[in-house]
Amino acid sequence: MLYTSLLREGALAEVSYHWSQLAPLPSKPAALHCLGVSAERRLRLLWADLEELDVDIKQYESFNYHRTQEIGAAVEFLGCDGLIVPSARWKCENLVIFTDNHSLTSRLEVLSSEELDWQTWAQDAGLFDGAGRGTAGAGTSQAT
Fold first, then answer.
1. Are the C-beta atoms of residues 43 and 131 closer than 8 Å to each other?
2. Are 95 and 106 in contact (CB under 8 A)?
3. Whose CA is closest to 45, among 101, 99, 93, 102?
4. Residue 144 belongs to some domain of the structure
5. What is the number of helices (H) and of strands (E) in the chain?
6. What stretches in the chain show pLDDT beneath 50?
7. How many structural domains comprise the chain?
8. Which pTM does this prediction carry?
9. Residue 138 β-bridge partners
10. pLDDT of residue 62
Protein backbone atom coordinates (compact mmCIF):
# COMPACT_ATOMS: atom_id res chain seq x y z
CA MET A 1 0.00 0.00 0.00
CA LEU A 2 1.04 3.53 -0.69
CA TYR A 3 -0.58 6.30 1.35
CA THR A 4 -0.72 9.64 -0.43
CA SER A 5 -2.57 12.93 -0.15
CA LEU A 6 -4.27 14.88 -2.91
CA LEU A 7 -2.81 18.10 -1.46
CA ARG A 8 0.79 18.94 -0.55
CA GLU A 9 -0.38 20.30 2.81
CA GLY A 10 -2.27 17.09 3.53
CA ALA A 11 0.87 15.02 3.09
CA LEU A 12 2.86 17.42 5.27
CA ALA A 13 0.15 17.36 7.96
CA GLU A 14 0.28 13.54 8.03
CA VAL A 15 4.07 13.45 8.32
CA SER A 16 4.07 16.19 10.94
CA TYR A 17 1.44 14.43 13.04
CA HIS A 18 3.14 11.04 13.02
CA TRP A 19 6.67 12.36 13.45
CA SER A 20 5.57 14.62 16.33
CA GLN A 21 4.62 11.45 18.24
CA LEU A 22 8.20 10.10 18.14
CA ALA A 23 10.81 10.50 20.86
CA PRO A 24 13.28 11.85 20.13
CA LEU A 25 11.78 14.04 17.45
CA PRO A 26 13.26 13.49 14.00
CA SER A 27 15.49 16.44 13.19
CA LYS A 28 16.16 15.63 9.54
CA PRO A 29 14.11 17.34 6.87
CA ALA A 30 11.12 15.57 5.36
CA ALA A 31 11.27 14.52 1.71
CA LEU A 32 8.07 15.34 -0.11
CA HIS A 33 7.35 13.85 -3.53
CA CYS A 34 4.74 14.97 -6.03
CA LEU A 35 3.44 11.91 -7.85
CA GLY A 36 1.67 11.35 -11.11
CA VAL A 37 -0.81 8.54 -10.46
CA SER A 38 -3.65 6.82 -12.21
CA ALA A 39 -6.05 4.63 -10.28
CA GLU A 40 -8.59 3.18 -12.65
CA ARG A 41 -10.67 1.11 -10.22
CA ARG A 42 -10.94 3.53 -7.33
CA LEU A 43 -13.57 4.10 -4.69
CA ARG A 44 -14.28 7.41 -2.95
CA LEU A 45 -15.69 7.37 0.57
CA LEU A 46 -17.20 10.54 2.02
CA TRP A 47 -17.73 11.36 5.70
CA ALA A 48 -21.30 10.03 5.48
CA ASP A 49 -20.05 6.78 3.95
CA LEU A 50 -17.55 6.30 6.77
CA GLU A 51 -20.30 6.82 9.35
CA GLU A 52 -22.48 4.25 7.55
CA LEU A 53 -19.53 1.84 7.76
CA ASP A 54 -19.37 2.31 11.57
CA VAL A 55 -16.30 4.55 11.66
CA ASP A 56 -16.41 6.73 14.78
CA ILE A 57 -15.89 10.13 13.18
CA LYS A 58 -15.15 11.71 16.58
CA GLN A 59 -12.17 9.35 16.92
CA TYR A 60 -11.08 9.59 13.25
CA GLU A 61 -7.98 11.63 14.12
CA SER A 62 -6.77 9.08 16.68
CA PHE A 63 -4.44 6.13 16.25
CA ASN A 64 -7.37 3.70 16.32
CA TYR A 65 -7.12 2.41 12.74
CA HIS A 66 -8.83 -0.96 13.26
CA ARG A 67 -12.13 -0.15 11.50
CA THR A 68 -10.59 1.91 8.70
CA GLN A 69 -8.05 -0.85 8.04
CA GLU A 70 -10.87 -3.39 7.79
CA ILE A 71 -12.59 -1.17 5.23
CA GLY A 72 -9.38 -0.73 3.28
CA ALA A 73 -8.76 -4.48 3.27
CA ALA A 74 -12.29 -5.09 1.93
CA VAL A 75 -11.85 -2.49 -0.82
CA GLU A 76 -8.51 -4.03 -1.79
CA PHE A 77 -10.06 -7.53 -1.77
CA LEU A 78 -12.76 -6.30 -4.18
CA GLY A 79 -9.98 -5.46 -6.66
CA CYS A 80 -9.89 -1.70 -6.38
CA ASP A 81 -6.51 -0.11 -7.02
CA GLY A 82 -7.30 3.10 -5.13
CA LEU A 83 -9.33 4.38 -2.21
CA ILE A 84 -10.00 8.10 -1.74
CA VAL A 85 -10.91 9.06 1.83
CA PRO A 86 -11.11 12.25 3.91
CA SER A 87 -7.84 13.17 5.58
CA ALA A 88 -7.76 13.01 9.37
CA ARG A 89 -5.15 15.78 9.49
CA TRP A 90 -6.09 18.38 6.86
CA LYS A 91 -9.14 19.56 4.91
CA CYS A 92 -8.43 17.43 1.87
CA GLU A 93 -8.62 13.87 0.67
CA ASN A 94 -6.03 11.12 0.76
CA LEU A 95 -5.49 8.46 -1.87
CA VAL A 96 -4.52 4.97 -0.76
CA ILE A 97 -3.00 3.03 -3.63
CA PHE A 98 -3.30 -0.73 -3.38
CA THR A 99 -0.06 -1.63 -5.10
CA ASP A 100 -0.97 -5.32 -5.47
CA ASN A 101 -4.00 -4.27 -7.56
CA HIS A 102 -2.31 -1.37 -9.37
CA SER A 103 -1.62 -2.40 -12.95
CA LEU A 104 1.96 -2.30 -14.17
CA THR A 105 0.72 -0.18 -17.07
CA SER A 106 -1.00 2.36 -14.78
CA ARG A 107 0.77 5.60 -14.06
CA LEU A 108 2.85 5.89 -10.88
CA GLU A 109 5.80 8.23 -11.22
CA VAL A 110 7.66 10.86 -9.24
CA LEU A 111 7.15 14.27 -10.86
CA SER A 112 9.13 16.36 -8.40
CA SER A 113 10.73 16.19 -4.96
CA GLU A 114 11.64 18.64 -2.24
CA GLU A 115 13.07 18.58 1.25
CA LEU A 116 11.75 20.84 3.97
CA ASP A 117 11.92 21.39 7.70
CA TRP A 118 8.78 19.58 8.83
CA GLN A 119 8.83 21.11 12.34
CA THR A 120 8.86 24.67 11.00
CA TRP A 121 6.07 23.86 8.53
CA ALA A 122 3.96 22.21 11.26
CA GLN A 123 4.47 25.13 13.66
CA ASP A 124 3.52 27.65 10.96
CA ALA A 125 0.41 25.56 10.16
CA GLY A 126 -0.58 25.40 13.85
CA LEU A 127 -0.17 21.62 14.01
CA PHE A 128 2.85 21.38 16.28
CA ASP A 129 3.80 23.41 19.32
CA GLY A 130 7.57 22.90 19.01
CA ALA A 131 7.79 21.04 22.33
CA GLY A 132 7.14 17.66 20.77
CA ARG A 133 3.37 17.81 20.94
CA GLY A 134 0.98 17.81 18.01
CA THR A 135 -1.99 20.15 18.26
CA ALA A 136 -5.46 19.96 16.77
CA GLY A 137 -4.66 22.91 14.49
CA ALA A 138 -6.93 24.81 12.16
CA GLY A 139 -6.15 22.58 9.21
CA THR A 140 -7.56 19.36 10.60
CA SER A 141 -10.59 17.73 9.09
CA GLN A 142 -14.03 17.97 10.56
CA ALA A 143 -17.03 15.86 9.72
CA THR A 144 -19.62 17.90 7.84
1. no
2. no
3. 93
4. no
5. 4, 6
6. 136-144
7. 1
8. 0.85
9. none
10. 83
